[in-house]
Amino acid sequence: MGNGNLVHGGAVISCPHGGRAVSTAAAGTGVRIDGLPAVTAADLFTVSGCPHSVGGRPQPCTSVRWMPAGGGDEVRIDGVPVLLDTSAAMCFSAGLVPQGPPVVAPVHQGVSSR
Predict the structure, then answer these.
(1) Mean pLDDT of 90-103
(2) 14 or 109, which is more confident
(3) Which of 36, 68, 73, 75 is geometrically suited to a Cys-Cys bond with 10, CB 3.0 to 4.6 A?
(4) Residue 28 within a domain
(5) For residues 49 and 32, what is the distance between their CA atoms, to the nearest angstrom?
(6) What b-and-e string marks burial along 39-72, b requiring 16 or more CB atoms within 10 Å of the CB?
(7) Which residue range forms the structural domain that includes residue 80?
(8) Residue 51 lies in a domain
């Protein structure tokens, strides 16, 4: 398994320009970290408040796509890899232009299940 901390639905994640990224689908998992749902590779992340522009034209980040390490030895929830704060990811504009990796603030651990 890769090194890193599990990411939960309340983790502070931002795009490289300061926009806030939030999981829109984490509520469905029964596994909780610090009382919040664990986040998996199946969850969608949207970005709001990104001020990025190119040549004076707004090009804000709108989504984050995660790429779990793979290899079959990662932790899974219902068969889907969980996300770690070290998992590879990329922020994208609405036109799917790569904008850079997200920034994940350190998370505290406290795993439980319902």
Answers:
(1) 96
(2) 14
(3) 36
(4) yes
(5) 27
(6) bbbbbebebeebebeeeeeebbbbbbebebbeee
(7) 13-105
(8) yes
Amino acid identity of residue 27, one-letter, is: A
Q: Which pLDDT band holds residue 28 (cuts at 50, 70, 90)?
A: low
Tokens of 103: 């920034």
Residue 45's nearest CA partner among 85, 84, 15 is: 15
Q: Is residue 87 part of a domain?
A: yes
Residue 112 falls within a domain, yes or no? no
Are 49 and 77 in contact by the 8 Å Cβ rule? The answer is no
pLDDT at 34: 76
Provide the pLDDT for residue 40: 87
Print the SS3 string covering the chain: CCCCCECECCCCEECCCCCEEEECCHHHCCEEECCEEECECCCCEEEECCCCEECCEECCEEEEEEECCCCCCCCEECCEEECECCCEEEEEECCCCEEECCEECCCCCCEEEC
pTM, rounded to two decimals: 0.80
